[in-house]
Design a protein that fits this description.
This protein has 419 residues and is mainly α. The chain has one domain: Growth Hormone, Chain: A (Up-down Bundle), CATH 1.20.1250. Helix content is 81%, strand content 0%. The protein has 17 helices and no strands. The protein has helices at 2-26, 32-38, 43-71, 74-92, 97-125, 131-160, 163-183, 198-209, 212-224, 227-242, 247-271, 277-301, 306-318, 320-332, 339-363, 370-398, 401-407. Helix 3 runs parallel beside helix 5. The chain is globular, with a radius of gyration of 20 Å. It holds the Pfam family MFS_1. The chain crosses the membrane at residues 46-65, 77-95, 101-122, 134-156, 162-184, 214-232, 252-268, 280-301, 307-324, 344-363, 369-389. It is found in: Cell membrane. One of its GO terms (cellular component) is plasma membrane. InterPro entries: Efflux_drug-R_Bcr/CmlA, MFS, MFS_dom, MFS_trans_sf.
Length: 419
């Protein structure tokens, strides 16, 4: 029972760690109109604070990958979360949109430590054959964020003002730091042979990227995973401006749509008993491609009202709960010693693609739903194409990718749970 409780507690902490950045993205979305009003700017300018946050996450993960491998998991994690707390307080007291955009970038640089460390610790602490299942549970915790964050953000904004959203975020991360210190295992020991000089770091990243299995599932899963960021960026304008819903109503709509990801994440674990991670990823991207195409065609034809749009986005987002854990598991399976660097590259691509998707929605903004749904569909189509091309390369070189993922490190044992 004690080992079971320890396992649950570790997965919960890792899930919360990985949730810091998604929570930071989702919670302030209902405050967009108030931010634009108070900072004397437009919503599409405020949207750039989301883009800067995603850019910060992408770049920051490349920084933390080598740091986590060289100094162990916890010390870089503490440093990053401290930067996050300070930048979050700075966001609360900003008086201009441009300062907010800058503070959000710094906030992301700090907060992304949690994302990289959480993924690397999963690889450290659990057998390869269990990674997809553990990541499904972790994704479940992450998926709760978009259900509650915008709702909480909407009520906080309405009751106290948008500034208190950032105060709440800072308090949450302080509590997370305490939980890490008290209950999270240290993971893999520091590796002093890992150099932090630019040339060796780049050589290490290159050695990871040369692995065809990693490259295929990183690109396919990562670009496919950018689609929800187009939705996140565009949905405040679509629902609160075009459909004229309130901040609180928007929070509830966001929560309902997030239930799609939670439901499919819950299904992923039992589905893995019958299907491989590679099969589930293929299904997810195919589903999103079909639904994304219907969203674009229907939006051009004027077929959908508010509820029709919500229904199709719900189905589209259901694919996300199958994409993320399975593409991550297939990407990380070949690595142990370089798990930190592999996690960083995986997260960098995912968030970098998300930043581009978010920026595209802002640039294409035309007071219709078309920019949002078009970028969502494009991400899914590109992800599926890359998966099909990459899978042929893997199969021609090393047999089934699903089998290869489990054979490469079949005999390697996870690190015992210890602080």
């Amino acid at each position: 029972m004690k080992n079971s409780q320890n396992r649950f507690g570790i997965i919960l902490i890792l899930g919360v760690l990985a949730t810091i950045s998604p929570f930071s993205i989702d919670m302030y979305l209902p405050g967009f109109p108030a931010l634009a009003r108070d900072l004397n700017t437009t919503i599409d300018h405020i949207q750039l604070s989301l883009t800067s946050y995603l850019i910060g996450i992408a770049l920051g993960q490349l920084l933390y990958g080598p740091l986590l491998d060289r100094f162990g998991r916890k010390n870089p994690l503490y440093a990053g979360l401290l930067v996050y707390v300070l930048a979050t307080v700075g966001c609360a007291f900003t008086n201009s949109a441009d300062t907010l955009i800058l503070m959000r970038f710094v906030q992301a640089i700090g907060g992304c430590a949690g994302m990289v460390a959480a993924l690397a610790l999963v690889r450290d602490l659990f057998p390869v054959s269990e990674i997809a299942k553990v990541l499904s549970l972790q994704t479940l915790v992450i998926s709760v964020s978009p259900m509650i964050a915008p709702t909480v953000g909407g009520y906080v904004t309405a009751a106290f003002g948008w500034q208190y959203i950032f105060i709440v975020l800072a308090i949450i991360v302080v509590l997370v730091i305490i939980a890490i210190y008290l209950a999270l295992p240290a993971g893999r020991a520091p590796d002093k042979s890992i150099s932090l000089l630019p040339q060796p770091v780049l050589r290490n990243f290159y050695s990871v990227l040369k692995n065809p299995q990693f490259l295929t599932y990183m690109l396919a899963g990562g670009i496919g995973a950018a689609a929800p960021f187009a939705y996140i960026s565009g949905s405040p304008d679509v629902f609160m401006n075009i459909y004229q819903v309130s901040e609180q109503e928007y929070g509830w709509i966001f929560a309902i749509l997030a239930a799609a990801m939670i439901g499919s994440t819950q299904l992923n674990t039992p589905l893995l008993k019958r299907f491989s991670s590679e099969q589930l990823l293929t299904f997810a991207l195919t589903l999103q491609t079909v639904v994304g195409s219907l969203l674009v065609i229907g939006s051009l034809a004027g077929w959908y009202g508010k509820y029709g749009l919500i229904l199709l986005i719900f189905i589209f987002l259901a694919g996300q709960g199958l994409n993320v854990p399975n593409s991550s598991a297939l990407s990380l399976a070949p690595f142990a010693r370089q798990a930190g660097s592999a996690s960083a590259l995986l997260g960098c691509l995912r968030m970098g693609a998300g930043a581009l998707a978010s920026a595209a929605v802002s640039v294409l903004h035309n007071q219709t739903v078309l920019p949002m749904v078009s970028v969502m569909a494009l991400c899914a189509v590109l992800g599926l194409i890359l998966l099909l091309i990459g899978r042929k390369q893997i199969q021609s070189g090393a047999g089934s990718p699903a089998d290869a993922a489990l054979v490469i490190l079949e005999t390697e044992q996870p690190i015992p749970f210890k602080k």
